[in-house]
Amino acid sequence: MKFKEIKFHHVFKAANFYFVVVIFVITLVFYSHFIPQQQNLNPTITVIEYQWLPKILQDTKNSLVKAEQKIQNFNTGKLLNVSLTALIPQTHDFKNDSTFVKVPDNKYFYEANWDNHLDARWGLKNLTHEKIKISLTETIKAFSKFSNKQGLRFWICHGTLLSWYWNKKIFPWDFDIDIQISWEDLNLISKHNQTFLEDRFFIDVNPWSKFRYHQQHNVIDARIIDKTTGCYIDITVIAKTTLSSGLIHDKSNPPHYYEFEELFPLHETELEGVKVWRPNFAILSLANEYGVTSFEQDYFNKYKFIPEYQEWVYIG
Ligand SMILES: *[C@@H]1O[C@H](CO)[C@@H](O)[C@H](O)[C@H]1NC(C)=O
Ligand SMILES: *[C@@H]1O[C@H](CO)[C@@H](O)[C@H](O)[C@H]1NC(C)=O
Ligand SMILES: *[C@@H]1O[C@H](CO)[C@@H](O)[C@H](O)[C@H]1NC(C)=O
Ligand SMILES: *[C@@H]1O[C@H](CO)[C@@H](O)[C@H](O)[C@H]1NC(C)=O
């Protein structure tokens, strides 16, 4: 009995010793991989971002570091946080899956039948890339002003975030602007539903926006539409629901999922000279959505990015 106890005790000690050795080796390997490069990194890569990096392949990491360096002067320095509770819907009807399935999915937003990136009511037929870009810029300018005044927090996402990465502008071939807002600010914008900003930009909020599970025909929660062109900003709401533990998401299928730290705090920056906010880990977020090749692919849609001009130039 006694002998057995001693043996067990020794085995336990030995196991402890090997555990410590293994942890030591893992730590050494980790540090030898990550610390040397860290000295060359720009300081905007934070400790939390480092926790994400081991998940990403080495060459991918180098692209991310390069991309981070490219955007390091894009920020004004202002941060804006959103609390986790702002993302959690206070109503509970949507949490009941069996009830939710019964919610109809009638399409709310209608697009022009000759161009599904224009509003059906106001869309023009003779718009050029140039005209669309001007219209979108004026729309985001009015919306940014409105948001500032109302305390509404929004951030650029998807293709708009990618175009921002290149030169803080909208791609010349883009046909819309994508932004996200929190669940809490959906309530705020809903109060302005069916009103015009500056007699021109129409705020239209989808009645299905309070349901946070996927609806194929109602992925977009709100739109800001320029009535002089039919061009619009697509707004999607980010909320935390029972759909996925911990992650926050929109209504796409599959949803775009985010970790809280990926988006918040927001960083103030500019898009076409207009003050906007971008996600905390904008680069990681873009890498997740479009892959790291999107940081280097400088030819698209017959446009080439010319570094000397910092512009996409049409080359036919
Ligand atoms: C932002 O808010 C989150 C959740 O409320 C909090 O955990 C985090 O520390 C805040 N970050 C900053 C920079 O204030
Ligand atoms: C969910 O909805 C079903 C059908 O309407 C209802 O019978 C059930 O009690 C609800 N469950 C909860 C938890 O609310
Ligand atoms: C485009 O069409 C609108 C009406 O559909 C018209 O008012 C405008 O003058 C046209 N612009 C050009 C450049 O043709
Ligand atoms: C916004 O207004 C439209 C038109 O009146 C209405 O159908 C829709 O339900 C409203 N949206 C919200 C979220 O109340």
Automatic annotation (TrEMBL):
Subcellular localization(s) per the UniProt record: Membrane
Pfam families: LicD
GO annotation, biological process: glycoprotein metabolic process
Transmembrane segments: 12-34
Residue ranges constituting the LicD/FKTN/FKRP nucleotidyltransferase domain according to the UniProt record: 148-240
InterPro entries reported for this sequence: FKTN/MNN4/W02B3.4-1 (IPR009644), LicD/FKTN/FKRP_NTP_transf (IPR007074)
Keyword Transmembrane helix attached: yes
Key words, A-Z: Membrane, Transmembrane, Transmembrane helix
Keyword match Transmembrane: yes
Coiled-coil features, chain-numbered ranges: none
Source domain of life: Eukaryota
GO cellular component: membrane
Name assigned to this protein: LicD/FKTN/FKRP nucleotidyltransferase domain-containing protein
Membrane topology: Single-pass membrane protein
Species of origin: Clydaea vesicula
